[in-house]
Specification:
single chain; about 525 residues; alpha+beta; about 25% strand; SBP_5_dom; membrane; transmembrane; SBP_5
């Protein structure tokens, strides 16, 4: 069959958590697709290198008076450029769609759209995908890009099990049927395949290029990396021979990384940068108040701040305790304390992912119901239950303090332990020795967590596991979405966790800037359309 929307893609079209203090993610040990958790991993090695020969012109159309350079301030800095081996969302954010390109891409609504492949078909049984490539494509070094490069890139990824190779679930084979056609076969249907190919596992690299992947990049995108300084900055220069329709509109884009929020704000206020993403809601106020000069917008994303419950814990195995906690949490209060930008989220699937349904009404804020549930379980404010909340110090202390205060109202004394990430990884993620924990699960399409009884939640629902397996095997988007929605509702009704909010990234920019992406800009940040007029 051929699909034209959703995760099965828009084949007829024409040619990322992110908590600001974190800059890398770890895969689950189960090697299932999209099992990433945000973690802090900062290396302080400076690398300064001229990566490619600089160019001075852009192939895109620029408005009269537009600057030759735009400077963008970001948070999560890459330590090297090795897109095959280096973990962390910082590389995906700046390299995918700008320097490297894949068979397909994702748009600002998280939908699959054409990229190197102009169109594709999926067989009725969901086992064979045929991709039709654009013609006359080249890499930035002038080498021809054709079907053999696609085949080599994906085989190389799978054979060497490079980063994100596990996303190609059920991969069986790939072959070039001619110079512009690729056939990819699966051993069993995988409804997430096309979306997975929008990330690292779908990137096409030049098999003949000779370069240092840690400090250089040879891709097929609208930009070249002309300068890289680890943990500090990346300079992108327009590719003068770019083959595609997304030719860079600004000749030079300088990306500067700011570990300090106040330094980032000062850089935008002084004009040292023209864009800042992300910026905390409170720090953005000064720019909101100056509408004549600045624009401030919040974009949708897939970050889910999950208050995890240990479903096999001594006390949290009792669904009444878990339900009471959900009823006692005032999500509106928590969101308001963060500036009011984040969105309420009542279940495990965010609004930009397949299967999303508004589940905030499953456990609305209701202290009376929460107290009644606690009483059924044998606890009250006079006879409180002590639970331990352990989470990584990258999230600060405010959320823990708020939860302690809110749960005290129903007879729960919350012992909050804010620890180093390595301690959390051992205690919670590995040993599952916890009652409650807090994590920003920022990856898209990560519902698999709730269908895995070995994941750190200890949540085991055969019905959810069956629905998820059927969703993965679906060859129709509507069927897949319905199955995921049913599974997500069960997870929410089982009070397997509480979803504090769907984090929305706030960006601010000078009003002379146009074309800066707002949605999902901490995951992938295409910059070809960005211009700046002083």
């Amino acid at each position: 069959m051929s699909d034209t929307n959703g995760a099965h893609g828009d084949a007829g079209a024409t040619a990322a958590s992110t908590d600001a203090s974190l800059n890398a993610r770890v895969k689950t040990p189960h090697r299932r697709p999209w099992g990433w958790i945000v973690l802090a991993a900062v290396a302080a090695v400076a690398i300064v290198v001229g990566v490619v020969v600089g160019v001075t012109r852009s192939g895109g159309d620029r408005a009269a008076g537009a600057s030759d350079t735009v400077t963008i301030g970001l948070k999560l800095a890459p330590t090297n450029l090795d897109i095959r081996n280096q973990s962390g969302s910082a590389l995906d954010q700046i390299l995918i769609g700008n320097v490297y390109e894949g068979l397909v891409a994702r748009d600002e609504n998280n939908q699959v759209v054409p990229a190197l492949a102009s169109s594709w078909e999926e067989s009725a049984d969901g086992l064979t995908y045929t991709f039709h490539l654009n013609e006359n494509m080249t890499f930035s070094n002038g080498d021809v890009l054709d079907a053999e490069d696609v085949v080599w890139s994906i085989r190389d990824l799978v054979d060497n099990q490079y980063h994100d190779a596990s996303s190609l679930a059920n991969f069986e084979s790939i072959a070039a049927t001619d110079a512009n056609t690729v056939e990819l076969r699966l051993s069993a249907p995988n409804s997430n395949l096309l979306w997975a190919l929008t990330g690292r596992c779908g990137l096409v690299l030049d098999r003949d290029a000779d370069y240092d992947a840690q400090t250089e990049a040879v891709g097929s995108g609208p930009y070249l990396v002309s300068d890289f300084r680890a943990n500090d900055s990346i300079t992108l220069t327009a590719n003068p021979d770019y083959w595609g329709g997304h030719q860079a509109k600004t000749p030079t884009v300088v990306v500067r990384y700011f570990a300090d929020d106040n330094a980032a704000v000062n850089a935008l206020a002084s004009g040292d940068v023209q864009v800042l993403a992300p910026i905390s809601d409170s720090l953005a106020d000064q720019f909101r108040e100056n509408e004549e000069r600045y624009t401030v917008k919040a974009g949708d994303g897939t970050d889910k701040y999950v208050l995890a419950f240990n479903s096999a814990g001594e006390h949290t195995a009792d669904i009444r305790i878990r339900q009471a906690i959900r009823c006692a949490i005032n999500h509106d209060e928590i969101i308001a304390s963060r500036g009011g930008t984040d969105a309420a989220l009542g279940g495990p699937i965010p609004s930009l992912d397949p299967g999303y349904e508004d589940l905030t009404d499953v456990y609305p804020y209701d202290l009376d119901r929460a107290r009644a549930l606690m009483a059924e379980a044998g606890y009250s404010q006079d006879n409180p239950l002590t639970l331990r909340l352990e989470y990584a110090n990258t999230y600060g202390t405010e959320l823990g303090d708020q939860l302690r205060s809110q749960l005290r109202e129903i007879g729960i004394d919350l012992d909050v332990e804010v620890v180093e990430f390595s301690t959390w990884l051992q205690d919670v993620y590995t040993n599952r020795d916890y009652d409650l924990s807090l994590v920003d699960h920022n990856e898209s399409h990560d519902f698999y967590q709730w269908a895995d009884p070995d994941y750190y939640y200890n949540y085991d629902s055969p019905e959810v596991q069956d629905l998820y397996a059927r969703a993965l095997a679906a060859t129709d988007d509507a069927e897949r979405d319905a199955l995921l929605a049913r599974a997500a509702r069960i997870v929410s009704q089982d009070a397997a966790a509480d979803w504090l909010f769907n984090y929305r990234v706030t960006s601010a920019w000078d009003n002379g800037v146009e074309g800066f992406p707002v949605n999902l800009n901490q995951t992938q940040l295409p910059l070809w359309d960005v211009t700046y007029t002083a």
